[in-house]
Design brief:
homodimer; alpha/beta; Barwin-like endoglucanases; Pyrimidine Nucleoside Phosphorylase, Chain A, domain 2; 6-stranded mixed β-barrel; 4-stranded antiparallel sheet; 18 helices; 18 strands
Chain lengths: 496, 496
């Protein structure tokens, strides 16, 4: 046990809680870099990971910002340092590394240590790798899901039923959420939906909804919106729901380690954390989508259903066509326009997106028991046709802080445009969704809300030479030029 | 490809090469945190790992100190940024994570990426974990050894034979190196020895040698000493020999992941890097030593011998008694005094240490062919008895920059002393080496060179009530008190 003077430094690790000690003092105390010490101050106590430096005065300890945000230490105050034992989580990670199965308590301890930053990134990575090499049993997956949900914040609505949906992703547009949420809410079903922003695509649901209303809500704000309107469409990253999952995803990314159990837990923890009772999962299959074979899709489907049962959530999984974009606009404003056209029964609303959203909403309505099996899609259609879905959508937009009266024609679409015309007569045989995404990204999406492209033709449509296949929209000439260059590199459609 | 203004920041990651980009720009360019980019400046090009911040101007890129030490970029100069593909090493780590065996090229690529900091710690950790869970074949161990040696600096003496030795460690004192090196060098054999500092023990060979001469030599200085005197005893951490190993050790430590192949490669790479042709490995076995069973010791022995053959180094392994300290002094100066007493044929030189060093030196002399099998120990004894070993030792001390005329009685031993007396008549049945180490550490070793303890009795010796068993030495009264407290907690010897 030693006494040192605390010095606050304005540095943030972004991850673990770090302190810096003088090398000589650390050596005397047999403290090595990456060891853990406990800092006991009058304002509280915290465990931190040690870095060493020869340049720090021997009687000082330097605290990263994360630490002095946690405990109240006036600069220069004397604090007590004790050496902390290795956290239990490390023992359990080693157990998994030896191929043994973990108990519920062990998984919880690991996840809460990762979430609370008492494990370093390197230590946490050992857990990710262990899950990758040995896999996770369905029981471990269940424990992991619960632990991720329970160590983060939770949305406590205290109502039932609560619907939720998730799409495995990788398909441009596919903005079913923005149609399903108002249909369900209009039917009287709670549906507190969190969505992600684009990572590699031209828009995520959160980016698209943001064209119409703020999406960066806290859990309290989200709760208020849902209790008022029954639905919401907010950005998941703005809440602390299932926050451990964000850390696991960050570790998985560099080596693309996606152990199936972690992928399942990642999705279901977010549903569990909002208290969902009925969950519909959409797995699009396509050679450029995230899931590329029906075999993989069925394997995922059966695991999702089993995990759902264990979590006491009614879970259904549909496998859908992921071979081409769903909808016609690609990019935040262009996709929002498609959604508004559908909700306002405008004939320009893309039929494929409308039909997919209606059938998914129908399944959820059936699962919940609002209608008999087979009648859900009729009710969903009726809710859109009658204008009730649009009315509900406007309520949600307003509750989130947006302008409910915004019209499709009010949306600002990029002024710099380029038409890509068919070089010949024929039929669209294939649309390369990766190239479509790349063109829209280079045009400025998702950062430039009005950027992207619009598809006049889909797979199976006939085109004549000189007929428009798509238009690129950009907010600056240079970005338009970039996008055109990408388009000219390789055509994004195959015409036969 | 984008152009940004370089800003040099005075921050060092201590590991990977880091740059910070504006979040918005990164998003537009589809660059995510931990991605790699190449920075092309007029002064050169370098690959770095990306961190993001919303607070950095959109047209700037901030460079950590490691980067502007590598490439010459004036502050504010425009640099070109391109997105770098994932390094090949990541693909190979994933291959190992799938349980497949790696080729020589693949292992080399991984080790050189770890050594060159083109892999992040999290990515490198995945390799360590993969080696732990799947193990390393003897071929992979061989590739790993060579890769560690070849990616670091090497000592190029261009002579043969070159002797080397290694002890698996965990036994207090046991300073055979400081006796073997002068014997071998006096017999005309090159023996460029690098040693470690104490990590958890009261002294490493480097700490002990440092009482007599500087040990923090560069490779060039080390070479000069060896070419002049045939031997040296320097600190391995001061050179860049086998530097990748230091990084691997740092990753292995938090979870105590010691895959046998990595332990073997770690030892042998350092021998390979100094060009050793004849290597003797000492594996002490004892219930408190690093190796605790003869079974493990024999397993290690056979792997060391096999690896040695593959590396074209004649390698012998001896299994020795690790149940109690070898020698009588514990702590840098006290151990150095034992060594000087032995080399000067003083009767106070501890017999067990002398005998162990003589027999190890003898084996090396036999391996090299200086004498027939069975006659090595005689030659070793003769070299000590004649004073040739001491003469050579003084030459080495002088060449390293120490005072060759220092006498055992000149060594400064802690003035604060405490005698631990036997509470009763009996025989020493056991010495707890961990407690002995702890007492010496609390007394101030290895930072206080004169601190430690001296053992008058060893296992098998008879003691009378009131007779001295050991004396603690400290350089301050408070440290002496600490050490006495540890001693009184639990007696470090068992008397029957």
């Amino acid at each position: 046990m030693i006494r040192l003077k605390a010095r606050k430094i304005n540095v943030r690790s972004g991850g673990p809680d770090i302190v810096i000690l003088n090398e000589r003092i650390a050596k005397r105390e047999v403290i090595k870099p990456m060891d853990r010490i406990r800092i006991i101050a009058r304002g509280g106590s915290v465990v931190a990971i040690v870095n060493l430096s020869p340049e720090i005065p021997e009687d000082e300890i330097w605290l990263y910002k994360e630490i002095w945000e946690k405990i109240n230490v006036p600069d220069g105050e004397e604090v007590l340092i004790t050496i902390e034992e290795k956290p239990k989580a490390i023992e359990y990670i080693k157990k998994k590394l030896e191929g043994k199965e973990l108990s519920e308590e062990e998984v919880f301890e690991i996840v809460s240590s990762i979430n609370g930053n008492t494990l370093s990134e390197v230590e946490s990575m050992a857990f990710v790798v262990a899950c990758y090499t040995y896999g996770l049993s369905i029981e471990e997956t269940y424990y992991l899901t619960k632990a991720i949900a329970e160590t983060g914040e939770k949305l406590e609505l205290n109502v039932r039923p609560i619907a939720d949906k998730h799409c495995i992703g990788g398909v441009p547009n596919n903005r079913t959420t923005m149609i399903i949420v108002p249909i369900l809410a209009a039917a009287g079903v709670y549906i507190p939906k969190t969505s992600s922003r684009a990572i590699t695509t031209p828009a995520g649901t959160a980016d698209t909804m943001e064209v119409l209303a703020p999406v960066d809500l806290s859990i309290e704000e989200m709760k208020e919106v849902v209790l008022k309107t029954k639905g919401c469409i907010v950005w998941g990253g703005g809440t602390n729901l299932a926050s451990a999952d964000d850390k696991l995803i960050r570790l998985r990314r560099p080596l693309s380690l996606d152990p199936m159990g972690m992928v399942l837990a990642s999705v279901m923890a977010k549903k569990y954390a909002v208290g969902a009772t009925h969950v519909l999962i959409d797995i699009p299959v396509g050679k450029r989508a995230k899931v590329r074979s029906f075999r993989d899709a069925y394997e995922l489907k059966s695991r999702f259903e089993r995990l759902g049962r264990m979590l006491d959530m009614k879970t259904e999984v549909i496998i859908t066509d992921g071979s081409q974009p769903i909808g016609k606009g690609i990019g935040p404003a262009l996709e929002a326009r498609d959604v508004l056209w559908i909700l306002t029964n405008d004939e320009r609303g893309p039929f494929d997106l409308r039909e997919k959203a209606e059938s998914m909403a129908g399944i959820l309505l059936e699962m919940i028991g609002k209608v008999e099996r087979g009648e859900g899609i009729m009710l969903a259609k009726e809710i859109i046709n009658s204008g009730k879905a649009y009315q509900k959508f406007k309520e949600i937009v307003e509750a989130q802080g947006g302008d409910p009266n915004i019209k499709p024609e009010d949306l600002s679409i990029g002024e710099y445009r380029y038409d890509f015309l068919s070089p010949r007569n024929g039929m669209i045989a294939e649309i390369d969704v990766r190239r479509i995404s790349k063109i829209a990204r280079y045009a400025g999406a998702p950062m430039d809300k009005g950027a992207g492209l619009y598809l006049y033709k889909k797979v199976g449509d006939f085109v004549k030479a000189g007929e428009k296949i798509l238009t690129i929209f950009a907010e600056s000439e240079s970005k338009l030029d970039y996008a055109i260059k990408i388009l000219e590199e390789k055509e994004p459609v195959e015409i036969i």
